[in-house]
Write a structure and sequence with these properties.
This protein has 216 residues and is α/β, with parallel strands linked by helices. The chain is 54% helix and 12% strand. It has helices spanning 24-37, 53-64, 72-96, 107-114, 119-133, 148-156, 169-185, 198-214; strands at 12-17, 43-47, 100-104, 140-145, 189-193. Helix 1 crosses helix 8 (198-214) and helix 4 crosses helix 7.
């Protein structure tokens, strides 16, 4: 059970990551509903790209504008500019006031999606993250892992698809591989089987998040 007394003792960021079709949005919505039902305050939800006026414009540009074929380098620069605004105007002020921010995607998505198998891009992104954010990282990352074939099946059932929903199976396999590589390197990343029943998966996720909050 979440200890309400812990909600005002040291702020931090929790992120949800995973390939498209992993069920992130569903799990985040369930978490929002739970906190709302329990009247839990001082926890704020956001997403990337997004979280600011500029971030929402970048989101629309990257996800919905099929007339522009951005290179991975251009995508990284746009995402970092959006993240810098998001971090300074939304995330950091909340953390400084001992709040908890829960974000649908953050820096790990950029490594997994935009870097692909390109080590040079990975090194550039790593350098820029240090320069802009001084290696700031989430305290906890929930990685929803799923077989890309199942993820694509889920995506194909959607009525509305963005540009990333239309990527190939091979693309998602690479993204998943990159995510799992990050999980092996960073202890903050906890991997969950996203093919599980939605309610069972949520119970497992909620236990980890509650445990992290109660550590404060």
């Amino acid at each position: 059970m979440l200890n309400r007394n812990k909600l005002n003792k040291g702020g931090f960021l929790i992120t949800f990551e995973g390939i498209d079709g992993s069920g992130k949005s569903t799990q985040i919505k369930k978490l929002q509903n739970l906190f709302k039902k329990k009247k839990i305050k001082n926890i704020y939800f956001t997403r990337e790209p997004g979280g600011s006026e500029f971030g929402n414009k970048v989101r629309k540009l990257l996800l919905n504008d099929s007339n522009i074929n951005f290179t991975n380098e251009s995508q990284i620069l746009l995402l970092l500019a959006s993240r810098f605004e998001h971090y300074n105007r939304f995330i950091l002020p909340i953390i400084k006031e001992n709040g908890i921010v829960i974000s649908d995607r953050f820096q790990d998505s950029t490594y997994a999606y935009q870097c692909g198998n390109n080590k040079k891009l990975y090194d550039i992104l790593k350098y820029l993250n240090y320069s802009l954010f001084r290696n700031f990282e989430p305290k906890l990352t929930i990685l929803l892992d799923i077989n890309p074939k199942l993820a694509v099946q889920r995506i194909n059932k959607r009525n509305k698809k963005n540009l990333f929903d239309k990527k190939t199976l091979s693309f998602y396999k690479t993204v998943r591989k990159n995510y799992l590589k990050l999980a092996r390197e960073k202890k903050r990343i906890k991997v969950f089987d996203a093919s599980l029943n939605k309610d069972l998966l949520f119970d497992n996720i909620n236990k980890i998040i509650t445990k992290e909050i109660d550590k404060r």
